[in-house]
Structures are given as structure tokens and as C-alpha cells.
Write a structure and sequence with these properties.
heterodimer; A: alpha/beta; Rossmann fold; 22 helices; B: alpha/beta; 9 helices; 33% helix; 29% strand
Amino acid sequence: MASIVIPSGLLLGTLLLIPSLFGDFTAYQIGLFLIYGIVAQGIGFLWGKTGILPLGQTIFFGSTAYASAHILINIETLGWQLVLMLLSVLIAGAIAYVLATMVFRGKTDSGPYFSLITLALVLIAEQLASTSPNITGGFNGLSGYEPIAQLDPFGNLYYLIVGVTVVSTMLLLALNRLPAGLIARAVSDNEPRLQLLGFATHKIKGLVFAMSAMLAATAGVLFASHQGIVTPTSAGFALSAQFIIWTAVGGRFHVLGPLLGSVVLAWLTAELRDDFIYWEISIAAIFILVVLKSPGGLAEIISIYFKKLVKAQVSEEPSYCAAPNVKSQQPAATLQFDQCHLQVGVVQILKGVTFTTPAQGVVCIIGPNGAGKTSLLNVITGNLLASKGTILLAEKHIHCRPPYAALSSGIGRKLQVPSVFFSMTVGENLTVATLAQRAKWYHYFSAKPLLWRSAYISSLLAHEALPLTHNLAKQVSELPQGHRQFLEFAMTAAAQPRLLLLDEPCAGLSTAETHLMTDLIRQYQTQTKGLVLLIEHDMSIVEALSDKVLVLHQGQVLAFASYVEVKANKDVAAVYAGGTK
Amino acid sequence: MTELIAFAGLAGGYGDSQVVFNLGASVQAGQALGVFGRNGVGKSTLARLLQGSLQASKGTITLKGQNIASTPPFQRHLLGLGYMPQTAMVFDELTVGENLSIGSKSGLAEAYFEIFPTLAERLKQKAGTMSGGERKILSFVRLMAEDTNIIVLDEPSEGVQPENISRMEQCLLARKKQGSSIILIEQNLTLLRAVADQLLGMDAGKPVLQSTLAQTSRAKMLEVLSI
């Protein structure tokens, strides 16, 4: 709580002192820069957390500024004015949500395409604003109206702006410390992994984009009253680009960074633009310098010095609490492939794969490199769509579902190259996995779920030899590949799926670690009485673990039998000898 | 015999955290150094220090007698150091053939098609559509075709089927015969013992065993792995 109240309190105190220390005109100027800062804070949260760079935030800023001007011109009652302004902010959020979810559906990245779409939209918005004099007043804009509640832009309106700025700051600081902030961070870190943990990432991105749009829209409402005029520049690309520069220079990873960047740079611009002809070039140079040398901006530089001054407190072991049960624990079920084909481009990867597994046990998948083993798992989780045939789990079709629906069907997946959240600590990775299939929507806005620990994860961490037990505070980027294998296994198994897909979980492990991993897999299967599908090359592991062995060769099932039968099968021996480490 | 690569008092890590300390070894032409140890002891960090993507905080690395401790990776490559990282790095959007033509000596990759026939069959296939094991083989063959005479490999057998591991072994033994120096980091002790002449066992970033293969039993190596 202190981490939210102290910075917000300091911000409030500082801003309240400005009129008495520097006079009303300076407060008027700072008021405008704070309005810009609110937009930049929304951009910072979106860009810094989810990796989405919006190039057209003035679409929301400008359109609500125009809407507010119309409201102030046409509506006299303050109550109705406020209701309609609130409605315009909500509409901006709804449009942003629909746009982002439509664009990001079925994707696993935030690529440049979304930025380019927002760029195109802001150019259209600017053009429309300039060429629709009946609605926007054309080049001259809309003016000649009283500010909201007739608050003087050189007087009391400043305090309203300060209030909104502090509320926005507190909201974002709180989100940073809640599961919602953690999940937003996970989006930019490793979206495919988040999807396999059951999170519909296009909706998460839609929600964060909507929030940033609503902050821009709120700022637009204040802007209309503060300036007394709304022109096409407030919906244009030039201002959008400035928002990006201020956010980057201030620091997109910190809530106060974009606010600081906006106030400092906009103030310097106002002071120096007329006297120093190279000012715009200097701003461009500062922007390039920050992007190259300090991607975290001014906020990062300040926080480094702050950390040197203030001794870091030794963090105590958090007191974890029992996590609730997963939403729906499905019973064990058979997995059925019927004439399944998979074609990627011109390459035919699976050719009529047909088999039915038992509902329980460990099925090892073996076969030469390129036989289609990983692709088989990809069609189960929906990462690749089978071109023909059917795949049934518990007699229900699963082959047309997106990857984020796999876990809710009871399918957990560990990838071949360990896929975890690299910018987070081991503990945070386990927290994200624990939230999966357990948290309801409101849990993401409460701090308590950050301390959830499921019985299964606790039992895993009780293994002294597990290389995660003593590394919970360690950054995953510092973890060796082998230890990431254990982390990803723990994350995949956290929701106790009835079908656990493990793609070479022992690759890169030493002999002792391999024994530990095989023990954990067997324990998992015994405990959950579910089905484990495991790709492995080491035949000693296959022998130790498998109840049945599925042999794939050139995209087809060569054999599906017990280990002993497969070992004696001449056709298998002809294509795959197997070996041990 | 000529010493192709040597390092002494080598230390390094990531940011403030020091991962490896005081590592040293030298590899003659036609010899191989096998590096082993549990996960997290600093094997991949050593490989990255030698390749240059990570800067050493202490110590020297000499390549054919020249100190390269502060030489950037591309120059180390020009001096004859080839590197295969643990996670196969291939150009996903390029075909197998195009991948093999980048940085390789003309005609050399084709020589490996007999050993790895699947590559020859998939020359026109995009590398991004290949399986993890096949990408590893492609990455290995590209390294072989680069024709560098100092070869650093970080767990080449990970995710590769046993037959292909044996083929990798044949290729590495052939390169030794041709006079290359090899530094092989491996969890697969069978491959490591088949290729290495000297061994460096590591724990907690430090050397805990340095000996010749002949003097080190498999049991002794397992002992290091279970420290």
C-alpha cells in the first residue's frame, strides 16, 4: 500500500504547491502538460507492459475533446454534461477494445502491424477533422464555450486536472502490484506461453488498450475545457508522435516516467522553441539517445540513483496461502486421432495419423527427427490446425480450438525449448501458472492471489534437489536451460491437466536431473491418474516411464504398443535404433 | 602440436552476478576438450565467453597465440572460431539450402549430405517448418561447413535422435583428424567420451576436475555430475 500512497502523495503535494510557488500562469501551463502526461501514462502502461506501441492515441484524445466541446456548447446542465462526457470516455474504451481484439485474435505477437493500423487511423481522423466543418469546425476548430463547471483554466481547473492525474497515477501504480499487472507483463514477455496457460491474450491486450484509450479520452475531456478550443491538431499525428517521444524519454516502464517526460519536455519546448531554433533537432537527438542508451528513460536513470541512495530492504519470505481448486477438474479421458493430416505450406507433416490412447498412463512418442512428433502435439493444442481428420479428447472435438482453450479442455503443454517468462523471477512464473484456471476475473484486482500456492506446487518445491526450490527470487533469464525445463514442467503441471504433453523434458539434463524429472513425471501421473504424452529420444527413459510407446515415422504411425513389443518390432528397428545418454 | 585455443584465469557472468571463475585449459590442433557438469554450473557461460557474445571480466583467451579477450564475436569467427549455441539458431524464413549457403565454404555443406541425407531432401524447405531436432542438425552442419578450425559446441546432441548423435560424433572425429580443435559441452557422456581427449568438469562456475580422458572413468564423471 505504501508503494502506492507515498509516490501519489508526493506527486499531489508537489503539484498543489505549484500555483502558490510559481503563480497562476505557470500552473496553467503545467495543467496542460499534466493533461498530456495522462495520455502518456496510458501509452506507457500499454507499451511497457504488453509491448504494443500505439501511434494514434490522439484518435481518442481528439475525438473526446471534440465531443466535450459539443457537450459544453449544447448542454447546459452540469450533471448531463458529466454523464455525456463519461459516456464519450466509455465509448472510446469500447472502440479500442473491439479494434484490438479483432486485430490480435489468432496472433501470438504485437508486431508492427498494430502500430501501423493506429498510424493509418490517426491520419484518417486528422483528415476527417479538417474536412468536416459542420462537426469539427474545420481548420478553425470548435471554440466559444465555457469550461466544465465554469472552472477557470487559470484558476480552479488546475486542481481538477491535478486530481485526475493523481487518480490515474494511483490506478496504474495499483495495477502494477496486482495480478492484472503481472498478467499484462506476461503478454509482452512470452505470449505463446501465456496462451498455453489458458489466457486469451487478444482479450487482455484489448482491455489494456481500452484502458489506455480511456485515459487518453479523459485527458481529451480536460483538454477541451482547459484550452477553450479544439482544432484538428488535437486529433493529429504530430501530437501522437510527441506523446510517444515524451513516454519514451520519461520512461515507459514506470508509472511516473511518462508524466515526468511530458511535463519536462513540453515545458522545455514551450520555453525554448522560439529562442532556440535547433530545439526540435535537440528533442530528436534526446529521443534517439534515450532509445539507444537508456530504454527505461529518465525514470530508469532516477531509480538507479535512488536505489544507490536508499538501502534495499531484505525482503522476507512471503507468507503464501492455499490456492483455490482449479475451476473444473475433468476426469481422465482417452485421446483419439482419426486419419489426421497436417500440411504446412508444401510440406506434408502428418499423413493419416490414427491411434487411440488409454485414458490413463504414460505414452512415450519416439521417432526420428522430423517424424512429426512435435507437430502431433501442436495439432492437439491448436498451435497448428490439422488439414484433415479428427482429434477427440473425451470424445469431444479439440482440433479447431485456439491454443488458449487447450488448458480449459484439460490439456497442459510443455514445449521443446523451455518456454517461460524470462523477465520475471521463478516465483512470479509459478504465480502466473497458479492463477491459470483458478482465478476468477475479480481475483486479478486483488493482491491476495499473488500469494496463492497450490498443494501441487508446494509438494514440488519440497524436493530439495529441485533446482527451483532455492531460486524463487532469481530472474529466469539467469537460469540455465536445464533448470528452465523444471520450471516449465512445474508451470505446465500447476493446473493439474488431465492430459499433460511433454516435449523432450529431459533434454539438456544431467543424469541425476533426468532421474528427478522422470520421478516427477511418474508421480504426476500416479497422483492425477491422467494421461501423459511424452516425446523422448533416450530409450532408458522410455523404458522406465512408458506404459505404451507410439512410434512415428515420416508423419505416420509405425507402431503403437508396449515398450517390449516396440523394441522387438523389426520395422521400428529399421528406422529408429534409439540410445541412451 | 600447435595450440589453437587456450584460456586462463577466465571469469565472467551477467551484470553483477559472476557465473564462472578462474577457468583455464588449452586445446591443441586435432584435440578435443570435453566440458561437463550439472545444469547451472556455467558451461554455456564459458561457451559464450569464448565466442565473445559475453565479455570476460578477468582472464585471457588466446586464439592461435593472439589474445582475443576483447575481440568482438565476428572477428573471432574470422580468426577461425566457430560456435554452435545450445538453442539451434537457424534463419526460419530461409530455406535449408539458403541457410547452408550463409557463411559456409563453397561445396562443403554438400559433403555432409551423405551423412545427413534428410537435409539434402529438404533443401527447398523453409527452416522454420523443420522440427527441433532437424534444426539442431542444420545448425550443426552449417557449423561444419563454415570450415573454422576451432569449434565450440554447446550441447549439440540435445533433442537429436541417437542415430544422428552418432553421425555428429563421426563428423567431429573427422574434424579432429583434419587438425581442428574442439571444445564440446555435453550432458551426453557417451558422445563426450567418444570425442574428448581432455576433460574439464565444472561445479559452481569453477573447475573441479581437469584430466585426460584416459585417466578419467565414467564413474568419476558421474561423481562430478552428482556433486
